[in-house]
Design a protein that fits this description.
65% helix, two-stranded antiparallel sheet, mainly alpha
Length: 275
């Protein structure tokens, strides 16, 4: 990576403004077709940042925007083979950029809510609304989901479509280890409560079920998913009630909701041992 960075620094960045745009386009193009090279690309961007900050930020912004576009693309077939590679590469690139501190935890959480908005786990709300205008986001608006508005409208997030779930799991596989403590952990716990309800709206295939188990086992070893959709909805309703009054208490409650079943199991086991 150091050799590549030295060669890149020799380019006429100041004399030719097009060099920055060329670098961003070349980096994104390489990331979309060469999955194994993505960690190296993130390393190059990290080492180049002190010297060409604007060009590196162009790559970061381009990666996030490209990922949003593949999520929001109308009528996209998330299970189409030709799109699977590009989505996987973009998710991996964003995760690696975060690992090298070129993105912050708020950006990762924003992407997770793009993939699984809070209302996406409500029956009938099968059209996620990822894009939120800047002025609305400043006022507190968040990604949402809505029902179909007309007969024949494309079902963008139907029960059999696990594309968004796959992308979320792929992202968590890369960045999950950085969300193990502090504020980032607590805010991710809130999203996991919504995810637990979202899962009941999906017909999860065997491979996705195993991927979900492996990701959650590595991310939160003591996490216990709800037993029913009603239980998941009750947990979300309880969380939203507390979050409306105090966000910090709501984040603490999210941790309890994700682990209370495990705690109950441990308590019952201790009581049986005492008997």
């Amino acid at each position: 990576a150091e050799v590549v960075v030295r060669q890149l620094r020799k380019l006429p960045w100041r004399d030719e403004p097009e060099v920055g745009r060329w670098f961003a386009a070349a980096a994104l193009s390489a990331a979309e077709v060469r999955f194994h090279a993505i960690p190296l690309l993130a390393t190059v961007c990290s080492h180049l940042l002190p010297f060409q900050e604007a060009a590196v930020l162009r790559v970061v912004d381009g990666a996030v925007e490209a990922l949003r576009l593949v999520i929001d693309r109308p009528g996209i077939d998330f299970d189409a083979a030709k799109q699977s590679r590009r989505r996987g590469c973009l998710v991996r690139l964003v995760g690696e950029l975060y690992a090298y501190r070129l993105l912050d935890s708020r950006a990762i959480l924003r992407i997770l809510y793009w993939l699984v908005p809070k209302q996406a786990g409500v029956w009938g709300r099968v059209v996620p609304i990822t894009h939120v205008p800047a002025h609305a986001e400043a006022a507190g608006a968040e990604p949402a989901a809505r029902p179909l508005l007309r007969h024949g409208e494309p079902l963008l997030d139907g029960p059999a479509d696990c594309g968004r779930l796959r992308m979320a799991l792929s992202l968590l596989d890369v960045v999950g280890g950085f969300f193990s403590r502090g504020l980032a952990r607590r805010r991710l716990d809130v999203w996991l409560v919504y995810l637990s309800r979202y899962l009941f709206c999906k017909t999860v295939s065997v491979d996705v079920r195993f991927a979900l188990h492996d990701t959650l086992a590595a991310l939160r070893p003591q996490l216990v998913l709800p037993d029913s959709y009603e239980q998941a909805c009750a947990a979300v309703a309880r969380l939203e009630t507390v979050m409306a009054d105090d966000q910090a208490q709501g984040e603490a409650l999210a941790h309890e909701l994700l682990h209370e079943a495990a705690g109950a199991g441990a308590t019952s086991g201790e009581e049986e041992g005492e008997e």
